[in-house]
Glutamate 5-kinase (Stenotrophomonas panacihumi), 388 residues
Amino acid sequence: MTDLRAPIAPAFTEQSLPPWRRAVLKVGSSLLAADGGGLSPRHALGLAQFVSTHVGAGREVVIVSSGAVAAGRAILPRAAEQGAAMAARQALAALGQAQLMALWQRFFERPVAQVLLTHDDLRNRRRYLNARATLNELLRLGALPVVNENDTVSVDELKLGDNDNLAAIVAALVDADALFIATDIDGLYSADPRQNPNAEPINEVTELDAGVLAMAGGSGASGMGTGGMRTKLEAAAKAGAAGIETYLFNGRSGEVLRALGHDRLRGTRLHPARTRIAARKYWLRHAPVEPGAILVDAGAARALAEKGASLLPGGVTQAQGEFRRGDMVEIRTPGEGGEQAIARGVSQYSAQDIRRLAGRHSRDIESILGYNYGENIVHRDDLVLLTA
């Protein structure tokens, strides 16, 4: 006799996820918007439980959340018709940010921290470093960062951008191992399943080529979001270039979310183009360097080459040029034929600051400069050797 209560087999094959330490979870407007306007906790609760499960297990999660405009639309509905003037949409985003943060805070005992970014913040190296330092410190303190675009001032981003790609950039920013994208369908299909009943689920993508991109359909069923499946694949490509895996799944399914809490995915797994370490080292090796250099003594050169150490002020002898904090610069040491470039990396301090710190102890940085960006001149994660 057939058991009518037996669950229907999922369209996507359940698969185990590789271990991860830090992840970014992107949540779109279609999962947070209420049918009558404003925000709804209906799907947010399951997503928050997924976060709490992994944070409780000692992992770290950054949420990239849409929904501010939808929240503002409920406060001033008459100013919120689709296609409203950009200034009106910016005002709605400003009104809705507080509502969005209140929605997330209600689910967590730990503090929730709002971080508003624009793409300009992430293109500019100095602002990029400041954003990374802030997010890392929030995670260290045990807070839950909730990131959103600063739509109140970002005209182009609000009109043309999407939080899928922002989530990929944030994942690279915080050196995440995984990017989880919660959507309103089960994952990537060979065609739009809402229009083609013969669409086949794609459980795994090993290479994001033109054929895979051609499978992408339009926006989610709710029409609330700014990005469809194609933007999610573009985000996966950005994350993959940094060595980060991406997982697409249905954020409306409690069963799917409970499985994710046990590192079991029912959705689409998109593999990165290369390992995270290889991607990072490739960028460090090939990114343009600024004129000038940091000169180090023989002891510091050996520590960099043989121990994989960070560069500390005590090993620095001089700074050449006028580079700024966040610039990519060469690290050189005296050799038989003159100065030899032994490494390159992202400087945490300007050339002017380094000249004042050369040869001093890290504990003296704040007393010398009046501020402190950390004990390292160049952190080992931001450094690549040029010699064997």
Summary: Residues 15-279 form a domain with the Carbamate kinase fold (CATH 3.40.1160.10). The chain has two domains: 15-279, 287-385.
